[in-house]
Amino acid sequence: MRHDSVVPAPAAFDLYADDQATTVIPAVPGEVPGGAPAAYRVAAGGELEAREVSAWFGERLVLDRVSLTMPARSVTALIGPSGCGKSTFLRILNRMHELVPSAALAGEVLLDGEDVYDPRRKLTDARRSIGMVFQKPNPFPAMSIRENVLAGLRLTGTKASRAEKDELVESSLVRAGLWTEVRDRLSAPGGGLSGGQQQRLCIARSLAVRPEVLLMDEPCSALDPTSTRVIEETMTELAREITIVIVTHNMQQARRVSQTCAFFLAAQGTPGVIVEHGDTDAMFSTPRDQRTSDYVNGRFG
Ligand SMILES: Nc1ncnc2c1ncn2[C@@H]1O[C@H](COP(=O)(O)OP(=O)(O)OP(=O)(O)O)[C@@H](O)[C@H]1O
């Protein structure tokens, strides 16, 4: 199905526009059956596929027929110079691109073969199964750590017992690698944490609605090296359970955390395209395209 124009998002999703929220509705799509507590269950799917995705801002084409498969339960890194369309591509994957009034797109995004843009599907479906973590940590600063994790439930009015919430808070913070640091101060404000802790709190908030995919837009660029390392370890752990797509300018980070890599490039005055994609080790050690080689070796960008 093609989507040559985009309907503005309903007001209920405006909170995404200033990056102040995460996935909104909890869901457990495609869980593996088993006896584990709900909060610990692992999603079965999570393959994301973009087919011939193009994007415009007004009349300006900024991405031209980009196709990419992002394998389930692994990390895909999107790399490339500034302005080549990486963030735009990322935002198309969970329907955030359409929040920009002048934005339009064409092509398909499939999550486990299902069209994310199918007009018969609720807009909320994309956001509940494909979460997003932003460059700048954006917890609700006055809310407690616990309330931050549960924010997605609160926003959707989802009912959960105290015990279920306790379990969800703990499991989300464990998965985000933050539990041991905050278990004794869950009532403290989220804004009182360090930058790296705040970013992990945002990851926990995303995880609490049980996404199949987590999109991360330069999640470590505002963090110190130690916090960056912790987030990278968290990503590696999470990728056992969910699909991660990360935009990064840090080539070492792309190499450390991802299994698949896509190199975006927009030559002067032309829209962004993927020059090369594939296995990360191969992209860095034996790139097929000279431009990839030049970029990953720091010769431009
Ligand atoms: N809201 C917007 N309105 C108009 N043009 C935009 C908007 N957002 C991005 N663009 C343009 O779209 C192109 C792609 O931008 P995008 O942010 O996706 O690139 P990027 O590769 O993520 O860059 P960076 O690495 O600097 O974050 C750029 O030319 C940018 O100026």
TrEMBL record:
A GO cellular component entry from the record: membrane
Any one GO biological process: phosphate ion transmembrane transport
Pfam families reported for this sequence: ABC_tran
InterPro entries per UniProt: AAA+_ATPase, ABC_transporter-like_ATP-bd, ABC_transporter-like_CS, P-loop_NTPase, PstB-like
Superkingdom field: Bacteria
Region (Disordered): 282-301
GO molecular function annotations of the record: ATP binding; ATP hydrolysis activity; phosphate transmembrane transporter activity
UniProt-listed Gene3D superfamilies: P-loop containing nucleotide triphosphate hydrolases
Domain ABC transporter: residue ranges: 48-296
Protein name: Phosphate ABC transporter ATP-binding protein
Organism: Nocardioides zeae
Lineage: Bacteria, Bacillati, Actinomycetota, Actinomycetes, Propionibacteriales
